[in-house]
Amino acid sequence: MFYSITHCILNGLLLNHAYK
Protein backbone atom coordinates (compact mmCIF):
# COMPACT_ATOMS: atom_id res chain seq x y z
CA MET A 1 0.00 0.00 0.00
CA PHE A 2 2.78 2.40 0.92
CA TYR A 3 4.54 1.51 -2.33
CA SER A 4 1.46 2.55 -4.31
CA ILE A 5 1.40 5.97 -2.63
CA THR A 6 5.13 6.46 -3.24
CA HIS A 7 4.77 5.36 -6.84
CA CYS A 8 1.90 7.81 -7.34
CA ILE A 9 3.96 10.68 -5.89
CA LEU A 10 7.00 9.79 -8.00
CA ASN A 11 4.82 9.54 -11.10
CA GLY A 12 3.31 12.94 -10.33
CA LEU A 13 6.76 14.50 -9.89
CA LEU A 14 7.93 13.02 -13.18
CA LEU A 15 4.86 14.34 -14.99
CA ASN A 16 5.30 17.76 -13.39
CA HIS A 17 8.97 17.84 -14.38
CA ALA A 18 8.10 16.74 -17.92
CA TYR A 19 5.59 19.57 -18.26
CA LYS A 20 8.24 22.09 -17.14
From TrEMBL:
It comes from the Eukaryota. This is Uncharacterized protein. It comes from Arundo donax (Giant reed). The lineage of its organism: Eukaryota, Viridiplantae, Streptophyta, Embryophyta, Tracheophyta.
